[in-house]
Amino acid sequence: MTDWKLICALTDIPPLGSRVVKSAQGDIAIFRASDDSVFALHDKCPHKGGPLSQGIVAGHSVTCPLHSWNIDLASGEAKAPDQGCTTRFEVKVEAGQVSLKLS
């Protein structure tokens, strides 16, 4: 069974910012891009586990605050030359409300 969990209003996440949600899978960072696209990733950089939620969002990527790895928000993949991936979670915005898919 798949459950969607209501997290917050879109406006509760600052543009180019994030919000952290505690879950059974660990901390999940929900990011808001400047175009109001929303993405959700496990809040650990694939390099050394840095908190991606504290990174800088630019376009549809986030830069890890520890070692400046760039992570694609849509896929969770590190951008070349770095290699690695963090878990991506499904997220949606309906009527201005952000929901996270937990399965």
Structure commentary:
This protein is mainly beta and 103 residues long. Helix content is 0%, strand content 42%. The protein is built from no helices and ten strands. The protein has strands at residues 3-9, 17-21, 28-32, 38-42, 56-58, 61-63, 70-72, 88-89, 91-94, 97-102. The strands form three sheets. A four-stranded antiparallel beta sheet has the order 2-3-4-8, with no helix packed on it. A hairpin with a 6-residue loop joins strand 2 (17-21) and strand 3. The chain is globular and about 40 Å long. The mean pLDDT is 95.
Outline the fold blueprint.
Layout: E1 3-9, E2 17-21, E3 28-32, E4 38-42, E5 56-58, E6 61-63, E7 70-72, E8 88-89, E9 91-94, E10 97-102
Structure summary:
The protein has 103 residues and is mainly β.
Shape descriptor reads globular
- The count of helical stretches stands at 0
Mean pLDDT: 95
Low-confidence stretches: none
Q: Helicity range of the residues? A: under 10%
Spatial strand sequence of the major β-sheet: 2-3-4-8
What's the alpha carbon Rg, rounded to whole Å? 13 Å
| Beta-strand proportion | 35-45%
H-E order: EEEEEEEEEE
Tally of strands: 10
Structural class call reads: mainly beta
Largest sheet properties: 4 strands, antiparallel
Instruction: For the record, give the distance between the C-alpha atoms at the N and C termini, rounded to a whole number.
Output: 7 Å
Please supply descriptive tags for the structure shown above.
single chain; mainly beta; 3-stranded antiparallel beta sheet; globular; 4-stranded antiparallel beta sheet; 103 residues
